[in-house]
Design a protein that fits this description.
alpha+beta; 5 helices; 5 strands; 15% strand
Length: 155
């Protein structure tokens, strides 16, 4: 099993698990490997260090202070991987706690707003024009781009 560090052209990093190097190349050529954040299939393989199981190997001495890890980000600053993880967590929460009304989103939002349907959290698809019309009617809407990988159950 090969675990590769991959990155799309938008800077989203993720792992891909493949049976072999050839499996990765074949899947990439057929554009079967896509970024779970944005669906981009233009991927770059990042350098990664192999994990070696050296049971019984002696510990190497600690590196000198000058060769230590790079400086940590300022206190309170988030690194891109943390931001990505929090965003995915928020999207998953929305997906689990809303009803998907699909293409009927604008109509259903109006029905809820005017008391014609039970108030509940919904999500769905609306054109920019439909979303603008809802806002003009005083109906709060928010665009939430959902990665293709989260739209279907994980296998």
């Amino acid at each position: 099993m090969k675990v590769l560090d991959l990155q799309c052209r938008h800077g989203h990093g993720f792992e891909g698990w493949f049976g072999s190097e050839d499996d990765f190349r074949l899947q990439q050529e057929r554009q079967l490997v896509a970024c779970p954040m944005c669906g981009d299939t233009a991927l770059t393989r990042l350098p990664s260090a192999p994990r070696l199981n050296l049971s019984g190997a002696k510990e190497s001495p600690a590196p000198p202070a000058a060769a230590a890890a790079p400086a940590a980000p300022p206190a309170g600053a988030m690194v891109p991987a943390e931001v990505q993880a929090l965003w995915l967590k928020a999207v998953r929460h929305v997906m689990q706690n809303t009803e998907n009304v699909g293409e009927r989103f604008a109509d259903e939002a109006r029905r809820i707003h005017y008391g014609e349907a039970e108030a509940r959290a919904i999500r769905g698809n609306a054109s920019p024009e439909e979303a603008q019309a809802l806002v003009e009617e005083g109906i709060d809407v928010m665009a939430l781009p959902v990665p293709e990988a989260l739209k279907d159950p994980v296998q």
